[in-house]
Design brief:
seven-stranded mixed beta sheet, globular, single chain, about 20% helix, 4 helices, alpha/beta, 19 strands, five-stranded parallel beta sheet
Length: about 190
């Protein structure tokens, strides 16, 4: 079993010394550097680079540099995806974003986790668990999302939260660790004519 196959199966794998993984990581880092050096006016070049880097993205994607990933090919974004400055996605496992996801500055989504055992950690072993973010989700600035988390549709995650467990759909959730605090109620909208 290759190290990538171990990672895909959720097993401990060699994240630091496997030549195939290191080569794929270097490719992604080079593409991120190219992306981060583009000017704001270079929208076509940015889209071209994102299409090369990510598994799925749409024409209306906006990621404000700087932007960093580990591999890129495990990331899928829906329509209307927007991320502010300094988004970090450590995508050793799939990271899937639904439609109309908005992410504040300085956020990190990490599928990578490390063993508590010192010898395993020092050997460069880690594990990876997928992250899923539903549709119409708003992630406040400085949020950290840990391995294996699912955030349901229409949820809002408050600034500075550390999301360690799943967040149900339609919930406002905050804190470290992040916890749902209330359902987001549908309110009648005022129409100004």
């Amino acid at each position: 079993m290759t190290e990538k196959e171990k990672a895909a199966a959720g097993l401990l794998y060699d994240a630091n010394y496997d030549p195939e993984i290191l080569q794929e990581r270097a490719r992604a880092k080079d593409l991120c550097l190219d992306y981060n050096l583009t000017r704001s006016s270079q929208t076509e070049e940015r889209l071209r680079l994102l299409r090369t880097l990510l598994a799925v993205c749409h024409d209306d994607i906006v990621i404000v540099p700087p932007f960093y990933v580990d591999l890129g090919y495990n990331i899928r974004t829906g329509q209307g995806f927007y991320a502010n400055h300094n988004l970090v996605i450590l995508d050793e496992a799939p990271v899937t974003f639904g439609d109309h996801v908005f992410i504040g500055p300085n956020c990190c989504f990490s599928t990578a986790g490390h063993p508590v055992d010192v010898a395993q950690r020092n050997a460069g072993l880690e594990y990876a668990k997928p992250i899923t973010v539903g549709n119409n989700v708003w992630i406040g600035m400085g949020v950290q999302v840990l391995p294996g988390v699912t955030i349901g549709d229409n949820a809002v995650i408050g600034a500075g939260s550390v999301v360690t467990k799943d967040i149900p759909a339609g919930m406002l959730a905050v804190g470290a660790p992040c916890r749902p605090i209330r359902q987001i109620a549908e309110k009648p909208r005022r129409v100004i004519l």
